[in-house]
From TrEMBL:
Topological relation to the membrane, as annotated: Multi-pass membrane protein
This protein's record includes keyword Phosphoprotein: no
Name of this chain's protein: Fluoride-specific ion channel
Main function: Fluoride-specific ion channel. Important for reducing fluoride concentration in the cell, thus reducing its toxicity.
Family: Belongs to the fluoride channel Fluc/FEX (TC 1.A.43) family.
Domain of life: Bacteria
Organism, scientific name: Abyssicoccus albus
Catalytic activity: fluoride(in) = fluoride(out)
UniProt keyword terms in alphabetical order: Cell membrane, Ion channel, Ion transport, Membrane, Transmembrane, Transmembrane helix, Transport
InterPro entries: FluC
Keyword Transport listed: yes
Amino acid sequence: MIILSIICAALGAVCRVYITDLLNAKISHSTITPTTFVNIIGSIMIVMFIPLMNINEFIHLLIPGFFGGFTTFATMTKEYYELITSKQYKSFILLFITYIILLLLTLSLYLFIQ
């Protein structure tokens, strides 16, 4: 089971890299960075799969494995740090507020599903 979780984490990381590279190539300037987009999508997917954990053991591989590799909060923190150190305060605040709002919406989705 641990090996499958590691494989799922690797697949999640590959998907994250592919999506962020694709978005970086398509979007030159946006309120939401590709990393934030991937983290929000990953969070929403985790919320949607949590109710299925008691039904299917494969979900136990998806949540910590695939979505653990898919989301990357360390990279997001690095992006925030780079915005602050390059004195792009407006972009940082806008991105941070957008992220908080999207996380609250994700939390609302979770509470609605329960």
